[in-house]
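[agent] plan:
  1. take the single chain provided in the ticket
  2. run structure prediction with default settings
  3. attach structure tokens to the ticket
  4. add a short note for the reviewer (M.T.)
[agent] executing step 1
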Amino acid sequence: SAAVRSDGLDALQAAIRKLEEGHPDEALTSVTSLLAVDSEWIAARQLLAEIHYRCGEWKQAQQAIDWLIYHGVESPRLAKMAGGVALASHDLPLALANLDYAVHVSPDTPGAQTLWGLSLLRGRRLEAAEEALSDALAITPADSRALDGLAAIQLLRSDFAGAADWALQALEHDMGLYSAHYHLGVALCHLERPEAARQALEVCLRLNPRRAAPCFWLIRLAKGPLKNEQLATEYQGRASQMIRERRSVRVRPEGDTSTRS
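[agent] step 2 finished; step 3 output follows
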């Protein structure tokens, strides 16, 4: 009711501040309490979607987004989140449709230009992706994902020095961005700097142990310029284990939730 929402506005604002301060769990606890009292409160539902989205909890974010769409909510910010979830779920057509709407209706929507550029990159539309990512950097010069996206574009163009430069710029702003370490490592492989490439790829693997691609590059380095068969065998074993685990997840019986994917 309106009276309940009026009383809860301070709590909602406090939850928003908690999220912005980097405390999503506390924000989630607060907004869940508000929705327990008034489940139809649109603003609280929007915050719920935002919390799950920022935490990379795609299933829960999609459920919150679906509720809002069903209740007639339409906005560039909601479209950006829907596009981001679709991109993370490898649904490129849906990602492009949502993000196209978000960037054309409100180009300054935080993060929308970056996601739009990354979606275009996923579709190998390199010139359009480069333009979108450049637009994102004009809005937020320290956007590490946009910088890393430009690194990926230069890799696809075989401009390995350019790729390394963009990846290093991304890492200046976010050392935890595993994809930037990966793009840097691949670029350094091509630039014939094997030890530096190994370090970048190993950092990528530490940040995202389930990613197989760094292992294959590390195997290539170990068998080639590093001349380290023991290292090659170690990473071959890790890559094989990852592939087995992925296959076991794909064939898991319906309803079996023993392993998170």
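[agent] step 4 note for reviewer: Residues 141 and 173 are 10 Å apart (CA to CA).
[agent] ticket updated
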